[in-house]
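Morning. Coffee machine broken again, so started the prediction first thing and wrote up yesterday's gels while waiting. Chain of 273 residues, entered below exactly as on the submission form.
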Amino acid sequence: MDAATQPVWAGVAWLREVATQVIESIVPPQASPPPPPPLPPSLRLTPGFVRALAAVGWTAVALWTGARFVRHWRCEGRRSVASPKRTQCVLVLGGDTPLGQSVVEYLLAHNLIVLASVSSAASAQALESRIDPEIQGYVRTIQLHDATSFVHAVHASLCLRYPWTATGDPYARPGQAVEWLGTVNTLGMTNMLTDVLQRLASLRRHLMIHILPGSSRASSTAIGTPSVTLHASPHSESRVLARMLRLLLPSRTWRACLSSWLSSLWTRLRALM
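Came back before lunch.
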């Protein structure tokens, strides 16, 4: 800056100061924004409000956990009831008779596989319609017309893998065939039926139980295999069925009987839901 321009720059600086003072005198300085208003008492996080909020949260978590546990328990119960492990089989002669139907339903309720003889295809369809669809794979109906074909069909059914409605190989693997506990006869004694029972006795040794209407008493007969006759009346049918199960499963403990009874009770309760 030379000596000639120095007075000019000094005048410019003086004018700037004067303009600043004039502007500040005309325009007042901006005030700082006011603080936010305080929260109302109802929205303040007091210790009591925090404890109440925590209690509501823990209650919701406990209810959700309990609901999940109950749902899981119900699913496990349904799965265990719907598909129990059944490895023992009983042949019921006369599964389409009123007494035979009671025997079939009683055996199914105690986790057994049932082979039931019927007189016709219509009788087989009527019997299958009375059974829960979830366990129909553990029931196999066989028409009884002559002894030879019937015994062959029984032998073939004993070699199947159950439930027989499942996909895959229909026959059981070696060593995994079902155990034939015995035969329950509700048809009485006829010439053809005597031939059938003799052929069944020669097929495999097993227990034969004859359940006939009449007074409640028991006697023994012999057709080449252990045989017991029970006489059932309408008032003693439940007791006769319970004795039949004890004869078929003499080694079953009270715990297993209680478990089977609870399973059947759960199945009936599910049917009512």
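The longest strand covers residues 179-185. Going to sketch it on the whiteboard this afternoon.
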